[in-house]
Design a protein that fits this description.
alpha/beta; Rossmann fold; six-stranded antiparallel sheet; 17 helices; 11 strands; globular
Length: 458
Amino acid sequence: MSINPLDQAEAPESPSFVRRLQRRLTAVSPGWWLVLSALIVTTVLWFMGRASMPADAPFFPWLGPSLLISAWSITLLTLLLLANIRSRKIEPFFGGLDRAVRLHRQLGPLAVGLILIHVALYVPPELGIEGSLADLLIPFHSSRGGEAFNALILWLVIAWTALAYTKRLRYERWLSLHGLFGPIFILTSVHALMAGPTINAFEPLRFWMWLLVLVGSGAWFYRVVLYRWVAPRFHYSVLRVDRTSENTVDLVMRPKSRRMIYEPGTFVFINRPDRDRRELHPFSISSSPAERDLRVSVRMVGDFTRELPDLNPGDPIEVFGPFGGFTPHRYPDYRRLICVGSGIGITPFLGMLRFEATNDDFRRIWLYYVVRDAEHAPYDAEIREVVPIADSYVDYELWQTADRGRPTAEALLEPTRPLEGVAVMLCGRPEFVRDMVRQFTEAGIPRERIIAEDFHFH
């Protein structure tokens, strides 16, 4: 049997400290560098504003840190809203919309945690001026003007966070809840800007903070109010709906006029305009960019997806996108790829594999379809049909956890040794993806060579 030249690689040398540090830094999502940069600007301007005020101003040990933390929370909330804007011009700053959504979820608890610390630091001075905890915690209890609203804002933030991060809400209700965050953000921001003496005393800081509020408010308004009307969209109609298993369907759509151009592995948001629904639903594309028709493969878990089998040929569909950075085209130097799709997470790899039959771009690929058993692998036959005609050298394996248990990084890496030049693409449920990322990292794959996408828009 001939040996593929991409499998013949020398064993890698042990990386130096500088190289390991470089790998860790390059693995950090671009969105976190944006967060760090914004926080640095906020902090520097805040201390410059503090320096411009009288030295005997009562800032420490409570008031000063509390006000700075408040400014940090507004900074994080702004970037939280910006990360969720769904703009193809903005998403590259976050490394793709999938990473932007992940950052959006991570920033929420951080920002709310800072708000709680901000309130906690107000407790000692509040008690020192003959106030009470009730003034801080009970809405409209305080008689000191605007402070009567502070507790209301606090509880609105806490209540919204508790509901937004619960996993029990249906997608439609969760989406509607997110639309309510804009007014809460504006109330919180105006409170911070009007009550902060440092902000009002230093013009550059005031300009920066108001700019953040305008950016955050604008991002929310665009996403919630304007998006459906001004965002780039494509008009498709239903060609057919194929029932691939008991709980999965393929929705195949044909363009009415202009066809969407996309990269394999990306995803779209779709809407049924005939139902006049406001919510848009994300689905990975499972067709090839070389094909005229657009296909998304869907696991039916909510009201919207359960209605898909009822669609008729010719029914209109609005398609927004494409989005995401989960595509090998953005990583041309990664010539040896381990691709792991768990359950419906195989969807983006279907589009990649179908495109491999036409793209004349040779790679060495190991593809794993992780399912409970063969009865839960509706796309196994399609994959086996496409693998022989792919331009790349593809090894495919159906991994059945009922027989073999969950896959491990060591087992998946064994056929690829030595590991020089190996990269990994993972798609599936968040807990599966997190566990595999950890395993591959511990097995020696640099974090920047692990490309992961999960289904956690909710």
